[in-house]
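Hi there,

I know you've been waiting on this one. I reran it after we fixed the sequence typo, so this is the corrected version. Both the input and the resulting structure follow.
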Amino acid sequence: MTPIAEKQVPLKEFLVTIIAENEKRYNERIDTLEKIINKGSQDAKDAVKTAIDAQEKAVSAALSAAKEAVLKAEVASEKRFDGIRLEMDRSFAAFNKITDGISREIGSLRESRAGNKERSDGMKSIGVAVMSAFAVITSLGTLLVLILKK
């Protein structure tokens, strides 16, 4: 109970006093709520700032990890390409050895063919000589038979 309610006061004064006390209580509640809201607002701002800072750190860490991954991938690619280049060099060296061997074989075959041609030409000459000799012998034999028959 209010101190005014215990005394006999006019109604208007009583109502004004109650309204003033209610207004004071409401203002205190409003001040308390504003403090709570402001504190909550500040807490929310702090929470948002903390979240943003954490997100920035996470993004930075992710970008750093991505850069590191790209560098590692580049190094791995270079190693693979070096391996491929080495294998290609080995393959070209083996190919060159094979083609050199084939070229030598072709040269040897050409020389052999030239020798065979010379032998073949020589054999043809001998064949022609034998045929000529056979023709001469046949002609002489025929001539001898004709002479003997007369």
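Quick highlight: The CA atoms of residues 70 and 96 lie 38 Å apart.

Best,
R. S.
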